Amino acid sequence: MNQATDHSHIPDWGVDLDPAKRPAVPMERTPPRLDGLHWDRPSQQPRTVEVLHSIERPGITPVFGTSAPPKGLSGWIRRRAFRRSESDLSHWMLLLLADRVNVAEGLADDVRRSPRARAAAFGLAGAALALWVLRRRRT
Question: Core-most of 28, 62, 86, 136, by most CB within 10 Å?
Fold first, then answer.
């Protein structure tokens, strides 16, 4: 069954065989373009908030975001996640859980701060309670 067949009628068949037919060949160079390359490491950004980083790296990167430092229950979960390796599934599951908890914390914070949000939350809670009571009466 291993018969050599002619595939020349198929466009681009065997493109690996002829480098001239490879789409990236005009952009590739041997050796690669490294002339005049220089890189200065950025200075370390000062830490003003807690910054979580992977245990696979010795320290934090020179530049990092500080707009949403870990706080509350979601921050506690994130700290537990960053005690584990990035190759561990529980690291990522804990981060997903922390995201969901952070959403709930944000909604609770909105309800606590805003009279409109508080009224909407109580209205939704009242509607849910009314539906539950009506459902219980039917049975």
Answer: 86
